[in-house]
TrEMBL record:
This is Probable alcohol dehydrogenase AdhA. NCBIfam families: adh_fam_2 (TIGR02822). Its cofactor is Zn(2+). It is an enzyme of class 1 (oxidoreductase). Belongs to the zinc-containing alcohol dehydrogenase family. The lineage of its organism: Bacteria, Bacillati, Actinomycetota, Actinomycetes, Streptosporangiales. One of its GO terms (molecular function) is metal ion binding. Pfam families: ADH_N, ADH_zinc_N.
Amino acid sequence: MDAWVVARPGPITSHPLERARLPVPAPGPGEVLVEVEACAVCRTDLHLAEGDLPPRRPRTVPGHEVVGRVAAAGPDTVRFAPGTRVGVAWLRSTCGRCRYCRRGMENLCPASTYTGWDADGGYAGYLTAPEDYVYPLPEDAPAEKLAPLLCAGIIGYRALLRCDLPAGGRLGIYGFGASAHLTAQIAIAQGATVHVLTRSAGARELAMTLGAASAGGAADSPPEPLDAAILFAPAGELVPVALAALDRGGTLAVAGIHLSDIPALDYRRHLFQERTLRSVTANTRADGRGYLELATAYPPRVATVAYPFDAADRALDDLAADRFEGAAVLVR
Ligand SMILES: [Zn+2]
Ligand SMILES: [Zn+2]
């Protein structure tokens, strides 16, 4: 099968990805083989390609927002008949036994593994995944519109849970890419007032068409204090900016897996009055199920740019340079 592998992690301009011909993988016990219809491009893929996240094995196929159909089921599988439409996401496995797994916090499992990092992902014709970590998907939606839900959607949903936005509250969203534009739509549907702060004029325009109350520059002050904020941009310098924009008792959740350095915080301006700074780490399967049920019942508008499978390197380059709004999706 055709695939892309991370051959030489480094700046995206140095072409870290390489085309490869790989054998179609065989599903092991408990695994399904999925034929890929579409795979969305996540900023984490860019961090893996550029080496911000160190490789865990050589020449791994990236991609963890995969829509496809079960092509074969391995031994000891029960969940999916061949032909079933499924999604494969970032969380690939957890131990199920550690203190975090037992407390419903499997996203913190020290033995967790990840699609496209610990195992080959969806920038390929096929991939295998443990069936317990695979999600059923609706038959009728285009693969291109479903793929971004699998990480951008799910992680944004967890970030929204983590920022403790009160009902009808004022939410600030810093950075407005694939995940943010999906998260904003849930918050608005639930009655929040959403203020978007981002450097991209095109993203500010998209935010307003999706129902944001305001859209300003990344370091601007929102028009009113915020009850909660989510930082989607991987820019540590925005942490104090967002903390300063919070009202008393507000919470800032940092959604990214990678963040540049955070400048010094000033206790009085950034944290006192019970403001809280939190991170968001991956997601649990319950988050995935919760979000996908919500997105199936109330389908969001998913802004996508389709790239042919052959153009994965160009899609990552365009993501690095902010050349599109919404999510890039590789379509086979
Ligand atoms: Zn565990
Ligand atoms: Zn992702």
